[in-house]
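Spend some time on this chain, tokens included, and walk me through the fold:

. . .
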Amino acid sequence: MKILVTGSSGHLGEALVRTLQPTSHEVVGVDLVPSNFTHHVGSIVDREWVKRCMTGIDAVLHTPTLHKPHITTHSRQRFVDTNITGTLNLLEEAVLAGVRSFVFTSTTSTFGDALIPPADAPAAWITEEVVPIPKNIYGVTKVAAENLCELFYRNQGLPCLILRTSRFFPEADDHKETREAYEDGNIKANELLYRRVDIEDVMSAHLLAIQKAPTIGFDRYIISATTPFTPDDLFDLQIDAPLVVQRKFPHYKEAYNRQGWKMFPSIERVYVNEKARNDLGWKPKYDFRYLLDGLTAGIDPRSPLARIVGSKGYHMHKFMEGPYPV
């Protein structure tokens, strides 16, 4: 199979190309930015360039996007150009090239304001049934791109699967208050309970989606580490998250104390990956229990792939108050 990976110089794109290169598949990496994993440099906004890259392609893994950290540095038009027009160009040319499988990397950020319950309500239980309420141009353009994928499945018969990934970036948190209150590893460890996923598990979900798309046709999936929580925990998570975590993992504080870490006082949403596990046969490995086992054994709880890919950043330069513009 000849597989086109867009965004091959980014976090996920590199992970996919790294993984596919030693296999029997032929992989073609494309990106705006040159790298050792990018075979063609150009813009998906340029349809003629996309057409040339699509020659002989059997499957597309479409990963690049303008992200939330770009909102203050890029115009809304740039978001439309990259996230919507770029996706449209790829879909148009995929149909013309006879592509058999199209996988679009979306984001749990599409849920937007649906993620935040009222103060006196239980934490939000986020499944694919939750209707997105985008709160910025990032979310709006990702939802629009998802809808284009659905349209091309319905009208052109192009098998498309949407993977709404939770956080897997290694960069520091984009909220200054959180960065100042918690050590970076502490933040990411806490998030594995409800809103984070390791890049190796994201990669494996994408490769499964390629295989499953022709049979499934179209659907959306949440890609996040398997949460230990259930709907019965939701009220308590809003009020006293450490108590709930203590019930699930009686010895977690021992591992946390050795690191000088602390749990968030409240957790306001929980991403549920059950549908992806059932439909795709996905078996995510890197969850909170895996992290605790790693801390206890004194080993890095990140996947080997996460350590190799490392940090890419979102901007070409650093800002006065950290990794994100103010």
Remarks:
- The longest strand covers residues 101-107.
- The longest helix spans residues 76-97.
